[in-house]
Amino acid sequence: MAEVTSIWEKLGFRKASGVSEAGWGQTLFAGLISLIYFLPVLLIIITSFKLQTEALSIPPKFMPTNLFGLIPDAYVFSPTLENYTSVFSRAMTSGGVAENTGFDRYFFNSIMIASVSVLLALVIGTLAAFGFSRYPLKGNDTYLFVILTTRMLPAIVVIIPIILMFRVAGLSGSYLGIIMLYTAFNLPFTIWMMKSFFDELSLDVEDAARLDGSSGLKVFFKICLPQVLAGLAATFVFGLILTWNEFLFALLLTGIDTRTVPVAMSQAVAGGGIGVLWGLLAAIETLFLIPVFFVTFFLQDHLLRGVTFGTVKR
Predict the structure, then answer these.
(1) Which of 14, 18, 114, 217 is the most exposed place for a label (fewest CB within 10 A)?
(2) Which candidate, 187, 167, 191, 186, places its Cα nearest to that of 177?
(3) Which CATH topology does 103-307 take?
(4) Dist. CA 99–CA 44, nearest whole Å
(5) Which residues pair with 100 in a beta bridge?
(6) Which residue in 313, 312, 310, 314 sits closest to 199, CA to CA?
């Protein structure tokens, strides 16, 4: 039993200190609610293994195998990996030769642009948040509010002046332009989130370090930063999700070489006169979920503190 518990903890499911285990009733209820929320994602994953005819079948086919003969054949489909291979190579026209769809580059673009922009925002925003927390200016709250208002505006409101600025600066369709834009839009969220974590820290240890001759940079890197690792992880995850799913800026400001997956998904909509290729679209969406799923899974212990904005005390 101890070995099973150890393996369970290594997978990230750790029992919090001072928290009693839920009973079977509460566990089943929580599992049922989780299944209801996960059901749309599960249907997308199942559809990604179906052929076009099976994806459109009525009644819907939802079982990949006839489990012990208990499921009627009308609800059983034959799973295939054809949709996943078609994501990266398929015939663009009827009867044509299979061509590279470019999705390998689109996935690389999404990963690179989202990661770099979020990391830049995290570096700049963390330094700014520490300054606002430890060296407040006159009207500190006003400055923070002004910073936050830059993130309140919907993308559709600011897209026209941004397009004009990109054209004048020659940044349209470039990696530098879209990364700078995502960094700017992630900064307000990063500053507010990290400031809440810095505000939690005790000033006594920092004052003692300064009395011992530590510089401001040493206090920041050696004392403060190690204590807000949970905040860094949570901020990174939320920033990554926001950037990963962004569509409008990517649609209007990226080029063929810098296009991201949300924009490239529109290629799977046209099915050559047979409607939407639902299996192919579901396969793209399933692959698109995987990177964020793994990042969220491995950093799950820090997400609760991120959601509560640092209000949960250790």
Answers:
(1) 18
(2) 167
(3) MetI-like fold (1.10.3720)
(4) 25
(5) 89
(6) 310
pLDDT of res. 91? 61
Give which of 176, 293, 278 is closest to 244, Cα–Cα.
293
Task: For 176-221, write each residue's pLDDT tens digit.
Answer: 999 999 999 999 989 988 898 888 888 888 888 888 877 878 888 8
pLDDT given for residue 249 in this prediction: 92
As given in the structure block, the two tokens for residue 59 are 């009644």
Beta bridge partners of 90: 99
pTM over 0.90: no
pLDDT band for position 74 (cuts 50, 70, 90): confident
Distance CA 144, CA 66 (A): 59
d(CA 57, CA 40): 18
Contact (CB, 8 A) for 169 and 177: yes
Distance CA 84, CA 89 (A): 9
Q: Is the peptide bond before 59 cis (omega within 30 degrees of 0)?
A: yes
- What does the alpha-carbon distance between residue 27 and residue 62 come to, in Å, rounded to a whole number? 26
Q: Any alpha helices (H) in 12-154, and if so which ranges?
A: 24-47, 52-55, 82-88, 103-134, 140-152
Q: Which is more confidently placed, 118 or 91?
A: 118
Does residue 239 carry a pLDDT above 80? yes
- Res 8 pLDDT > 50: no
Please tell me the distance from the alpha carbon of residue 209 to that of residue 223, in angstroms, as a whole number: 9
User: Which residue matches tokens 């509010």?
Assistant: 145
Q: Where in the chain is the domain with CATH 1.10.3720.10?
A: 103-307
